[in-house]
Structures are given as C-alpha cells and as structure tokens.
Amino acid sequence: MPPAGPAPSAAIPAQPVAPAPGVAAPFVPSTNPLAQTATVPTQLPEGVAPSAPPDPAAAGGPTAPGGGDPAEGLKWPCTGCGAQVPMAEDYCPDCGTGFLSQPVGLTTPTKVPLIGDLSSMNSGQKLMFGIAIATGVVVGMLALLFIGGTVFK
C-alpha cells in the first residue's frame, strides 16, 4: 500500500507574470465591473481563457439608489431651464435644450481687437485667422532666435 500523500487540491488559475524585456505585456482583463470586456483577447498568454466580468450586485459594487443600473440615477442639469434630466436623454423634455448645447460661460461674444467678434466668423475665416496667428508665432520665434544668435555668438 502506497503511503498517503497530500490530498489533491483544486487547479490554481494562471497568474500574470512580468514579461521578459522586449516582450509585450500580457492582456489582463479589468477588474472594473463597468468596463467593457474584450471581445477578441489577442494578448492573453497561451492556455489562459478570459474571465467573465464580476456581477456588481453580488460583489457589493455600485448600484443605483433603486438597486438597478448605476446610470439610471445619474442626471445632467439643463442649461436652458435648470431641470435635472436623466443621462439616457439627449434633450431636456421641458424646454428641448440639448446636452451641453450652450456651455455655461460662453454666452458672451469673443471679441478680438482689429478682428471683431469671433463667433460671427464662418469656418473659413476662423481657419485663416488661426493660420495667421500660427504664422505670427513662428516668425516671432525665428526673430528671437536670430537676434539671440547674433548677440551671443
């Protein structure tokens, strides 16, 4: 009769190891219950299957006040009328204002000396204005470098 050895234990799942230098790090699924799962795990080590995402309700994770989906309790303030609108809605049901359609603080026109109101420009004029500003910055930097090179030879 062979001597009694230790009892066989359950299989231990593969643990991630540090990759060798020059080798890409293995893909490790996120432990975030709200993160999307990888549909095509291409970087898993050989023989390691992707694990199923944990159930947030069983783990005591984030839940909405009613116990449902966490996004159900989130709301955004309407900039038009101030109503609290659920995140599932793109437009306020009270006044019809879209989500961030008029960002707060940008209601006054932006005026630039010698140019005028930037909000009244069309996209072509804004493009030309941006190119002129970028050209001016580059020419100014080149002038400073030229002057500095001639002074500090």
* Rg estimate, integer Å: 30 Å
Largest sheet: 2 strands, antiparallel
Alpha plus pi helix count: 1
| Helix residue percentage | 10-25%
How does the helix and strand content classify structurally?
A: alpha+beta
The geometry reads as: flat
Indicate the low-confidence ranges by residue numbers.
none
Summarize the structure in words.
This protein has 153 residues and is an alpha+beta fold. The chain is 19% helix and 7% strand. The chain has one helix and four strands. The protein has one helix at 123-151, and strands at 75-77, 84-86, 111-112, 116-117. Strands 1-2 form a two-stranded antiparallel ribbon. A two-stranded antiparallel ribbon has the order 3-4. A hairpin with a 3-residue loop joins strand 3 (111-112) and strand 4. The longest helix has 29 residues, at 123-151. The chain is flat, with a radius of gyration of 30 Å. The N and C termini lie far apart (94 Å). The mean pLDDT is 73.
Q: Keywords, please?
A:
153 residues, alpha+beta, two-stranded antiparallel ribbon, 4 strands, 7% strand
